[in-house]
Specification:
Blueprint: E1 2-4, E2 7-9, E3 12-21, E4 24-33, H1 38-50, E5 55-66, H2 68-83, E6 87-91, H3 96-103, E7 111-113, H4 116-122
Parallel strand pairs: 4-5, 5-6, 6-7
Antiparallel strand pairs: 1-3, 2-3, 3-4
Helix pairs in contact: 1-2
Length: 123
C-alpha cells in the first residue's frame, strides 16, 4: 500500500509516502516539517499505528527542515510506540534535521539510523 499527500507551501513541496510491508510501516516525509504541516505527518503515523504494525519507521532523508513541532511529534510517537511494545525507528542522515535532534538531545532517546540499510541490519 502506498499513498502520498503533496502540499505546496511558499515554493516548497511537502510530501508524505506510506508503505506497509509485512509487520513494518514506513512513513517518508519530504520537505519542511513544522507547525504548518506537522498534522499531516501525525495522521500518517497514526494510520501506521492503527494497523497494529510491530514496527513503524519514519524516513526523514528528504526532510530539509524541522522545528520544535516536529521534535515534539517524534517524541510523542516514540512514547506511544514504546508503551505498546512496538519499535519506532527514525531514518535521518547527517544534516540540518539531525543537528536539531542532537541539539535538543532527542537523538539520545530515539532509535536513529543514517539510512534504511543500517536500520535493516539492526533489525
Amino acid at each position: 500500500m502506498q499513498s502520498s499527500d503533496p502540499r505546496t507551501r511558499a515554493g516548497n513541496v511537502d510530501r508524505i509516502e506510506e508503505r506497509h510491508v509485512g509487520r513494518r510501516g514506513v512513513v517518508s516525509f519530504a520537505g519542511e516539517l513544522d507547525g504548518a504541516n506537522v498534522s499531516m505527518l501525525d495522521a500518517a503515523l497514526s494510520r501506521a499505528l492503527d494497523r497494529g504494525l510491530a514496527e513503524v519507521w519514519l524516513d526523514l532523508c528528504e526532510t530539509t527542515f524541522m522545528d520544535s513541532a516536529g521534535v515534539h511529534l517524534l517524541l510523542r510517537a516514540h512514547k506511544t510506540l514504546a508503551r505498546l511494545n512496538r519499535r519506532f525507528v527514525v531514518i535521518c542522515p547527517e544534516g540540518a534535521v539531525m543537528r536539531v535532534l542532537v541539539l535538543t538531545d532527542v537523538a539520545r532517546v530515539l532509535e536513529l539510523y543514517d539510512d534504511r540499510s543500517a536500520a535493516h541490519r539492526a533489525a
